[in-house]
Amino acid sequence: MPSSISDIAQxxxxxxxxxxxxxxxxxxIDATRQAIAGGQLATAWPFHLHxxxxxxxxxxxxxxxxxxxxxxxxxxxxxxxAYRFHxxxxxxxxxxxxxALQLDLRTHxxxxxxxxxxxxxxxxxxxxEKDGAVVEPGHIANGFGLWSVRASPLSAHDVTVTERATRxxxxxxxxxxxxxxxxxxxxxxxxxxxxxxxxxxxDVVATSLDGSWHANLQVKTSKDKVSxxxxxxxxxxxxxxxxxxxxxxxxxxxRRFEAFLESADRVAADAARAEEESNQRGNKPWAPWxxxxxxxxxxxxxxxxxxxxxxxxxx
Length: 315
What we know:
about 325 residues, alpha+beta, 2 domains, Trna Endonuclease, Chain: A, domain 1, about 30% helix, 8 helices, 5-stranded mixed β-sheet
């Protein structure tokens, strides 16, 4: 059971989510911990990442590691979710320019990870479920799993304190992203105005002081360090020479937002191409999203586009 407010906060952050899970030994975890120090690491997995798992990973970008066999040391971690990776992106081919760790010759999925975290409150198997039943280790014998945390018997006081601390309404997260964008543009000498609530499409209207330049911005915000942002099903109607997306994520360690900018035309083209590829593979209809580019140079391009955004960049 969680023993402190921080432990309860961790468990509450996972409650109600589908958690992507894989089995790992402490030897493999230790090898990864050493290899990941100082930056990103491409990890190889002999499993396919099916569509529901891709969606779950976009909603909560972590891979949880289940310690199945009882180790000679750290016996307290046996049959528990004890560690998790923060996943920057998932790809089918080995990414270039990133150190790689391949413990199995059969590789179907590459996960680029940038952090390995030991859970303050490891989650025992008895508190995990799959399709309403307690999970069994065999559920992830030959692949990834999607598990959920069972309802935790926390006290009413703990629930109240933790929900105030960790459950931020989606509307407030979106508002935080919009205001961060408005603040940054204002400091660049632009007039940046957030639109009234629920205005279709436009979140921020930006203009130069003399009115000779303007742009319409749609802001997509996450309070986590995600690598995908949902863009809604009307992305084709948002195209236009003056329309842009700003994709915002919160860097908790640095206590600041990070933003990336892309034209609406480019985002629509990327989303349409991804949707067509998904349909060709026979997948079910999916909720469109925009992924952060896999190549470091492309990530830097969209980051710099935001940093330099304004009349001088676009004209």
